[in-house]
Amino acid sequence: MPDGLWERIAPLLPPPKPRRHRYPGRRPIDDRAALAGIVFVLKTGITWNQLPTSLVGCSGVTCWRRLRNWTEAGVSPALHELLLAQLRALGELDLERCAVDGSHVRALKGGPRSARLRSTAAVPAPSAT
Questions:
Q1: Does the CA dihedral 40-44-47-50 come out positive or negative?
Q2: 10-47, pLDDT tens digit by residue?
Q3: Contact indicator for 66, 59 with CB cutoff of 8 Å
Q4: Is residue 66 part of a domain?
Q5: Which parts of the sequence belong to the Insertion element IS402-like domain (predicted)?
Q6: Of 17, 37, 41, 122, which is most buried, counting CB atoms within 10 Å of its CB?
Q7: Within a domain: residue 36?
Q8: Whole-angstrom Cα distance, residue 109 to residue 43?
Q9: How many domains does the chain have?
Q10: Under a CB-based contact definition with an 8 Å cutoff, are residues 110 and 32 in contact?
Q11: Residue at 117 is within a domain
Q12: In a domain? residue 50
């Protein structure tokens, strides 16, 4: 990760939790290493367990947990806006190659409705009496 980009991303990340005084446990992995692991997994498409620890300096599970915590803290939308603004400023935002799916665009008024669906539940047999 280039230093200039990291300097812009770091303020968006939540501060780390304070360590316990008596039994502090292991030192937490650096946010920059975790972000490098997250980007590597997203770019290559490998699973979190396949992330080579020696390459990024932390495990895939650690990267997954950090991504989950950052998502819950609302880092993703702010990071997305930052990266889009930087691409626009550099003139490298190409909207000819973009994809939109249902997770990003709300279907207004519920979208088109199909015919009424029939129940597929088991129908009780008619009475033999």
A1: negative
A2: 999 999 888 888 888 888 899 999 999 999 999 999 99
A3: no
A4: yes
A5: 1-79
A6: 37
A7: yes
A8: 35
A9: 1
A10: no
A11: no
A12: yes
